Protein 1
Amino acid sequence: MPTVREVTFHVLRRLGVTAIVGNPGSTEEAFLADFPSDFQYILALHESCVVGIAEGLSQGLRAPVVVNVHTNAGLGNAMGNIITAALGKTPLIVTAGQQTRAMLLGEPFLANTDAEALPKPWVKWSYEPRRAKDVPAAFMRAYAMAVQPPAGPVFLSLPMDDWDQPMDDALVFRTVSRRQAPDPERLAMFAELIGQSTSPVLVYGGDAARCGAWEEGVALAERLGAPVWLAPLPERVPFPQDHPLYAGVLPPAIAPLGAALAGHDLVLVVGAPVFRYYPFVPGDCLPDGARLLQITDDPAEAARAVVGDSLLGDAKLVLAALATHVASRPARVSIPSRPSSPAQAAPVVPGGPAPESAADENAAIPAMTAQQVFAAMSETVPDDYVIAFEAPSFMAAFSQSPMGRMARPDSYYMTASGGLGWAMPAGVGHALAERRTGRNRPVVVIIGDGSFQYAVQSIWTAVQHRLHVIFVVLKNGCYGILKSFAAQMGLSGVPGLDIPGIDIAALGKGYGADGRRCETADQVRDRFAAALAAGGVTVIEAVIDATAG
Ligand SMILES: Cc1ncc(C[n+]2csc(CCOP(=O)(O)OP(=O)(O)O)c2C)c(N)n1
C-alpha cells in the first residue's frame, strides 16, 4: 500500500504543482523525506523569504506553488508576506508541520496550538486534516480553493506522523476552472451605460494583469478612445505606460482621486478595489454627476466598494466582451498628460519636505539623486526585463524615468499590502520563473536601504540557484518616507527614523553575491551594465543624497 506521502506527491504531480519553497524544521522533515526527483525544493533562510519567493514564482508561472514552513513560529514569521499574497490574489498552498497526533492533546513542544486560527483572516481556507488519509484530498481541496477566483493563499497544518501511514491510492485528483464569466444581462447593461456616456474613463487594476488582459485592455481603451488610469498603489501594471491613452496612476486619497477624474461622466474600473485609499483626504469620491461601474472577480471587493455598481467576472473575459458590445469612437482630445508629479504616481502624502541625510559617512561626496541612478540604469537596461520595486520614497522618480515606463506585460511587481520585505524574495521567485519558463529575462530589484533589511536572506537563495538578479539598493541612511510623513502630519521628535552604519555591499558579499558600492552615476552605469552582461547575482549599493528625495 502506498503511504500518505506518496499519494500526496502523486496528487501534486497530477496538478502540475512541483515547486515547494520552504524552510524546514523537525515537524516538516517527515514530509520532505525521500523527496521525489521530479519536484524542486527551494530553500530560503527565513520564512518571509520563503513566502515572497513562492509568490514571485507563482506570479511568474501563473500557477500555484507549495510553501512549507515550520510549525507555529515559522508560520508566524511567514505571516507578513502571506498578507501580501492575499491582497495580491496569489494562489499559494501554505503548509506547516504539526506535532504528532498522539501527543497533541497535551500540547507538546512545537505543537501548533489552534493551527487553523493562526493564519486567519489572510487565507481563504485553513485546515488540519482530521485523519491522516485525508491529507492528499486536503491538498486537492486546497488547490481548488487557492486557484478559483479570487485566487489567494490557503493553509494546511500537517501532523508529522501522518506521512508514513499506509492508504489506498484513491483518486482525489479533480480539475476546477480559474475564470468566471460575467452575467450576460448585467454585462449588456454595463455596455449600454458605457455607450450612453459622453466621456468615459478607464481605471485598470491588478486583476487585469493577473488574468492576462493586456491586449483586451488596450483594445477596449482604443475602441472607446478613453484615457486609462492605473488604480492607486498599483502592484502590477496592466496597460502599456507608453500608450498615448495612458493617463497615469490615480492618487490614493479620496479628494485628489475624485479630482483626477474630473470631466468624465462614466468611470469604468476593471480589476481593482473602489478604491484603495491611503491618507485620509476627505472630498468627493467622484466628479459631480459621474457614474462608476466596477468589474471584479471578488464578491467581497464588490461589496465593499464605496461607490458605484459592480459586475462579477474575469477581467479578460469582460474586457473582450465589452469591446464587442460598445461602438467604436474617436479618442477625445483631452487625454490627461503623463504623470508628472508625485501626487499622481507615489503612494505617499505628496509634498512633504525632504528628509535629512543621516549618511554621515558620505558627507564629503556629492551624492547622487535617485533620479540620476535610474537615468544611469536606463541607459543599459534591456527592453524586456522584470522589475520588483520597493523603494518607498522613489516611486514617482522611478515612474518618470525611461526604465520605469513599463511597455510590456508581466514586467512590474510591487507589494500589494505595503508590507516591506517582499520585493527581494519576490524578485528571486520571478528569476526562478524566468528560468523555468525559458523567458530568461533579467530581474532587477530596486529597493530602499531600510526595505533591504527585511528579507535580505533571499540573496542567498538567488546565489545558490545561480539566478540572474540585480539588487539596486538606494542608500539614504534613513527611513526617508517616514520622515516625510512625520513632517506632513506636523509631528516632530519621532525617534527611530535613521539607520546609519550599514555596509550594504558587504551584506551582499556575505551571502555570496557580487557586492559593489557606487557613489557616482558613472559607477552605477558601469556596474549595472557589467551586472547585466555577467549574469549572476549582484548587489549595487547606490549612495544617494537623502535630501533629494
Ligand atoms: C513590514 C513593514 N514594517 C514596517 C513598515 C513601515 N515602513 C514603511 S516605509 C519604511 C521605511 C523604508 O525605508 P527605505 O526602504 O530606506 O525607504 P526610503 O528611505 O527611501 O523612504 C518603513 C519602516 C512597513 N511598511 N512594512
Protein 2
Amino acid sequence: MKKPLLILLLGFIMAAGSFAQSSYYFPGESFDSSIPSPEEFLGYPIGEWHTRYDLIVRYYEKLAEVSDLAELKTIGYTHEHRPKIILTIASSAHLGNLEEIRLAQLQLADPSQPKPDVSAMPSIMHLGYGVHGNEPSSAEAAMLSAYWLLASQSELAQNLRKNAVVHFDPTVNPDGRDRHSLWANSNKGFPPVADPLDREHNEAWPGGRTNHYWFDLNRDWLPLAHPESQVKIAWYHDWYPNVTTDFHEMGTDGTYFFEPTKPYGSENPVVPRKNYDDINVRFAKYFAEYLDEIGSLYWTKEVFDNSYPGYGSTYPDIQGGLGLVFEQASSRGHLQSSQRGDISFAFTIRNHVRSSIATMEAGLDNREYMHDYLREFFQTAVSEGAKDPAKNYVFGDQFDPSRNSLFVKFLMDHKIKVYENNADLSVGGYDFKAGKSWIVPTSQPQYRMVRTMFEDVKEFADSVFYDASAWTMARAYGMPFASNASDKTGDLLTEVPTQTYDFPTGKAYAYLIDWSDYYAPKMLFDLQEAGVHVEVINRPFTSKTQDGETKFSAGTLIIPSGFQKLETAELKDVLDKLAKKNKQKIYATTSGMNLEGIDLGSNLVGAVTIPKVIMVVGDGVSSYEAGEIWYLLDGQVGMPISKVNSDDMGRVNLFDYTTLILPSGNYNSFSENFQNHLKDWISRGGTVISMKSASLWLNEKEIIKEELVETEVAPEPESLPYAVQRDFEGAKSVGGSIYMAALDLTHPIAYGYQRETLPVYRNSSIFFKPSKDKYLTPIRYTENPLLGGYISDSNLEKLGQSASVIISPVGRGRVINFFDNPNFRGAWFGTNKLFLNAIFFGAIMD
Ligand SMILES: [Zn+2]
C-alpha cells in the first residue's frame, strides 16, 4: 500500500513543478498529461542547467515514442559523431502521408510542373535552433516549443497540428553546444554568480560558438564545408520549407532583435523585394505582439546583416521561403548582471519560446500566401533568368579535374542545373575544352543561386559590413568562367563527373605526377607516408611517357625507380593503389634524358622532405584561421598537425619540426627565451608560415624586416556628428572582398598553377609593401584588382601598393607571409594550393 502512495505523492510534486514551469513559459495554458514536459523528463526545470545534447536528443526520442503526432529522423552525424536529428510534428493523418506532402511541396517549387492546390497543403515550417553553441537559450527553447506544439490544448496548437508540418532541428551545432554546456555547467555556483567576470561567463579558447574545427556554422549554408551543413542543405532541398528560423544570442546588455533587418544595406541583392517589403512586415507584427504581451524590450531594422547567403536566415530567402533571425541578450551562463538587472537563463529561453510560437502562428495565418510565394519565387527565377544578359556560364579548369568535380558537386548540392559542354570554346580570355567544361544556363529555378555563384558585386547600398561583402563561389574555387558562352549544351548532369586512369604498364625509369590537380598534395603525402622517395623538379620539361611526348610544368613530382626502398613490384602496387584513391594520373618514363628542358637528375631536382608541422593555437590566436588550416590538413591532405597552445610554446623544441604556422594573432605572450629559440631555428633552415597580423608581430620583433604601406590618406573632416561614427569608421575596415592577384609561375609557391592570375580573398587591412628583394614577392595584385565586395578608396589605393605573399629570408630559413586568406571558410579551393605549397616546398623558397 505504501508504494502507490509514494508514486502518487511523487506524481503530485512533478505535476506541481511542471505547473510552476508552465505558468512561466506558457501562462494559462493546459497540456495533454500523456506527453512529458521537458522538466518531467529531465528532472529539472528548463533554465536550471544547460541541457547536454544527448539529453535533448533523448527528450525528442521520448516525444516521438509517446505521441502519434511526432516522428524523429536522424539525417547525419557531426564530426564528433553526434546525431543530427529532425523531429517532425503534425496530425497523424499528415504524418501518415508525409511523403506525399513532401512531393507536393517539391512540385510547388518546380515551375515546370502543374501547380498543386495550395488550399489543401499544410504549411511547412522549419524551426532551427542553436547554430552557435555558446548561445544556449535556443536549444532549451527547442524542447519547450516542441512540447508546446505537441501537448498544448490551446486552439492555436490544435490548428497548427492540423494544418502545418513543423520540423524541429533543436541544435544545428551539437559539438559546439556540448563544449559550451560543459563549461557553463561545470563552472556553475550555488547560488549562481551573476558577476560577468566570473569564470562561468568567460569560456576558455576557442569557446563553444563554433563546430569541431572551429568553423562558424552560421556561415556554412553556402560553402557547405561541414557535415552539419551538408546534411542540412540536402534535407532542406527535400522540403523547401515556407518558414525557417535561426535563433541566436547577443551581448548581455542588449534586449531582443527580430527581422526586418536594416533595409537595403543589409539585404541580399538577389532576394525579391517582396520578401523584405511585405513578408517580413507581416511576420514582424506577430513577434512584436508576443513580446509586448510579456513586456520584453526589442528592436528591429538596425545592424544585423542579412546579405551573406551562408547565414541560416538568408539562405532560405534565396529558396522561396522566409528565413528569420532572432537575437536574445545572453545570460552566458545561468545568471548574469546587466544594465537592466540580473538576466536569468530562463528569461532568455522564454523570449525564444515566444518567438517560436509567434513564428508558427504567423506561418499558419499566411499558409496559402507563403505557398503562393514559393511558387512565384521559382517561376520568376526562370523568367528573370531568361532575361539575364549573361544567358549562361561556361566553366572548367582543363588542368585540374578534381577541382572541377568539387565545383560541379557543389553546384549540384545547391540544386543548380549543370550541363555538359561538348564543344571547345574560347571566351572571356579562357579556353574551355569539350568534356572538361560545363554550362550553367541562367534560366532555371535556381537562377538566384546561379547569380550567387558567378556574379561579382561591387556596388552596395551601405559601406559597413558585419561580415563578408563578396561571396562569388566560382572565384573561391579559382574556376575559369565566362558568360554568354554557348546556348548549345550537352546532357544535364545527374552525377558528379570523376576520372579514372590506367596505371602505365612496363618498365619505368621514373614515375611522374603533375602537381596541377587539387589532390596532388594529398597524393604526395600518402606516398611519403608509404615510404616512397619523392622529388620535385623545379623547371618545366618535356618527357616521353606512355602518352608520347608530354609537357610538364615546374613542380612536377618525380619518383625515381632507382632510389626506392620498396621492391619494384611493391612500388608499382603502392603507386597504383594511391593513384586510384586520390584520382591522380601516373606517368611513366623510360629515360632520364628529357626531350626538352632539364633532365631528371638535374641540380634543379631535389628530394621533398615529409613536412612535420606545428601550429600555434589558444589565447591570442584567431581560432577561425587556425581551424581553417587544421581542417585543410585533416580533410584535404590527411596530414597530422600538432596544435600547441600559445602558453605551451616555451616547452617546444622547434628543431623537431620543419614548419611552424602562426595564424593571425597576438604573440606577445612568447617569452624572450622562446623568441631567441625561434630566431635561431629559422636561421638554421626552419620555415614559418605567417598570416597577416602574425607578420606584424614578426616585423615588430625584427625577426623579419619588411615595410608597411604608408599612404597619404585623404584628409578626414575635422569634426563629424557623433551619430555617424559607426558608419564612418566601419567603412575603413576590409570586411571580406575578392581581388585578382598576379602569380610568378616560376616560384614554388605557385607550383600547380597554369595561369598568371588568380582570385584571392582578403579580410584584413594589413598592407605590407613588396619585398626589397625583387625575387621574393611571388604574389602581387593586378592593375585593377577589385573583383567583388566593398573596399574604401583609400584602402584600395593601399592595396595596390601592397603584396599578397612575401617571402622574408632569415639566415638559412624563411618566413612565408600571407596577407590574404587562402583557406577562407574551407571554401577557397582555388588558393588552398598556395598554402600547401608553402608547407611542402617551403624549404626551397628563397
Ligand atoms: Zn549567434
